[in-house]
Amino acid sequence: MIKRKNIKDIILKGALLCIITLCFSCYERSLEKEIPVPGGEEEVQVVFTLKVPSLQSSARALTGGREEELSTLDLLLFHTGSNGAYIESIAATKIDGTPNLYTATLPKGTYDLMVLANCRQEVNTIAGTPSRQDLIKGLTLELDGEWKVDPDSSAYRPIPMWGMKDNVQVIDNMRLSYDLIRMLAKVNVEVKPGAQERFKLTSIRYYNGEKKG
Asked: Residue 97 in 3-state DSSP?
């Protein structure tokens, strides 16, 4: 015979288990709405228009065409928020006959969307689901020596560029435009012929300084 106290315990534990199951089920449904699910009818084609930094002046080492070169474009999806977790990366395809138009198949939904140009080898090293800030730190490029600007060099690669949009709601028939950002300082230095016998240029350093504060 089951004691009355044990019956109450069974009823309480059963009710608590039902509540937990119900809450978890609601949480799962909430995640399904927030997290884009690739595949099936939930994917759409999106066209990307890329605006590269305008060429103000050419450096002798690297011409305008090379500065603006786009070889690859990868799309990085993050959960919304200033430091949302990484979801996945998707490689975009260049549209033939257009200068800076790309297309990609993206999952419907709302998320933060980063574009990375000329960074395919770094994107391929992403593992797990790091936060946006941790992922950016991991994508930092380290360079020993000068940037190889000669296209015939085995170490040549186009200059990396990136762009970011938060809270992008991906829907049917969508076009997105990104103003790409890159880190590039162009310095043309020339020693006048009359000073070459008295002056030897050994190094150049470029610094950013605050205009205010």
From this structure: coil
Placement of tokens 């992403």 in the chain: 126
Q: In sequence order, what are the residues at sequence separation of 6 or more whose Cβ sits closer than 8 angstroms to the Cβ of residue 112?
A: 77, 78, 79, 80, 81, 84, 132, 164, 165, 166, 167, 168
CA–CA distance, 185 with 120 (Å, rounded to integer): 23
Q: For 99-140, what is each residue's pLDDT tens digit? A: 899 999 999 999 999 999 999 999 999 989 999 999 988 887
Give the pLDDT confidence of 3-23 residue by residue, as tens digits.
Answer: 454 555 554 455 455 444 444
Give the neighbor-by-neighbor strand order of the sheet with 109-117: 86-91, 73-78, 109-117, 161-170
Q: How far apart are CA 201 and CA 22, in angstroms?
A: 73
- Tell the residue number behind the tokens 């065409």, with chain if given: 65
User: pTM for the whole thing?
Assistant: 0.68
